[in-house]
Amino acid sequence: MDRTRLVRAVLGRLDPETAHELTLWALRHGLGPARAVADDPVLAVRLWGRDFANPLGLAAGFDKNATVIGPTLRWGFGFVEVGSITPAPQPGNPRPRVFRLAEDEAVINRLGFPSQGLAAAVARIGRWRAQAERAPARGLLGVNLGNNRDSADPAADFAEGALALAPFADYLAVNVSSPNTPGLRALQGRDELVRIVGQVRAAIAALPPAAQPPLLVKIAPDLSAAVLAEIAAVAVELKLAGLIVGNTTVARPETLAGGHQGEAGGLSGRPLFAPSTRVLGEIYRLTEGRVPLIGVGGVGGAADAYAKIRAGASLVQLYTALVYRGPGLVAEIKAGLAARLRRDGFSQVSEAVGADHR
Ligand SMILES: Cc1cc2nc3c(=O)[nH]c(=O)nc-3n(C[C@H](O)[C@H](O)[C@H](O)COP(=O)(O)O)c2cc1C
Q1: Using one digit for the tens of pLDDT, what is the confidence trace for 3-48?
Q2: In a domain, 18, yes or no
Q3: Is 16 touching ligand 1 by the criterion CB < 6 Å?
Q4: Cα(163)–Cα(166) distance, rounded to whole angstroms?
Q5: 178 is catalytic
Q6: How many whole angstroms from 255 Cα to the centroid of ligand 1?
């Protein structure tokens, strides 16, 4: 057995959260690739005045405390999204709180935003940014903001996080869609979104323009048609920089074969691909392609990433498939995506965005 397969076999036998902590430890200690290879130019994306070498990103939750930005970028991602980061440190829910559904290539988690808090994140991200400016880093950084579980005013938490981290972020994402923080998903209604976006924008308005990154909102895949229509309308009205579609699902598709499916929490991975891609396509249709979308949910190969783009995504993220396939998946998806774009006569990712709607 080669070394990578051996490592994955060992990690796969550990409790999933312990395996993840070990992975982060190894990455922090330099046990990852030394540098990323250059990307095929067909994969380049220009969005929000920024140049992404490729459209594939690491989804939030893998690097909650921003400890492995450089190492995960070197896996070949065009961008990584750290977080969710909460203002005050908090422990999250009791363990065990992450479960593998191996037969389904899925995970259920109810972590509940364990976070080392804003001060720790600011220090680390600030150091990474300073370094990246000396030797321009290959890859961009998204920062995902959460609220503290006991917060009386989640909008104030998002605003506080935004103000502290805006100067370092290529985009900010407000996460109103984790199923594991009580009351959070109720913030996806029109009035709540308008208030949160207003408060976050007001918080960063005093910063110099270059330190005001694009603001995105990350939504759940479980919303009714009426709420989706509301979110689409608000996104267009407020000229949101983008929507991330979306988070884990509280649904339990009938096709699930694995144990643990009765655990409470958010389901991610392969069973989430079809429902999250449907919602992505619906949001693209409702916004008439006027709001950039990040497609995430169940991406496990190049065909999935391409399907997200054709459904309307300008960028694509993944997390759970890495648990089962390892980081070599990043290069595999990029190669397959480039081949599919060329096969279909596209010379850039942007030409394929929303192609299924035309
Ligand atoms: C263990 C775990 C922790 C996560 N934590 C966060 C989080 O802190 N914030 C967030 O916005 N999304 C979080 N997510 C959701 C992912 O970013 C992503 O939206 C979701 O897992 C669907 O993508 P996937 O099927 O490729 O994993 C988490 C997912 C997993 C599996």
Answers
A1: 788 888 888 899 999 999 999 999 999 887 766 679 999 999 999 9
A2: no
A3: no
A4: 6
A5: yes
A6: 21
Alpha helix segments (H runs only) across the chain: 3-13, 16-28, 69-73, 118-134, 154-165, 190-204, 225-237, 273-286, 302-311, 320-325, 328-343, 349-352
pLDDT at residue 1, as a whole number: 57
Q: What's the domain count of the chain?
A: 1
| Tens-digit pLDDT profile for residues 293-344 | 999 999 999 999 999 999 999 999 999 999 999 999 999 999 999 999 999 9
How far, in Å, from the CA of 132 to the mean position of ligand 1? 26
Distance (Å, rounded) from C-alpha 190 to C-alpha 187?
8
The enclosing domain of 350 has a CATH number of 3.20.20.70
Q: Would you say residue 167 lies in a domain? A: yes
Q: What is the span of the domain harbouring residue 178?
A: 32-357
Which ligand 1 atom minimizes the distance to the CA of 320?
27
> Within the chain, which residues score under 70 in pLDDT?
1, 34-36
Q: How many helices (H) and strands (E) does the chain have?
A: 12, 13
Q: Is residue 213 part of a domain?
A: yes
11 belongs to a structural domain: no
Structure tokens at 125: 């991200």
Do the beta carbons of residue 215 and residue 200 sit within 8 Å?
A: yes
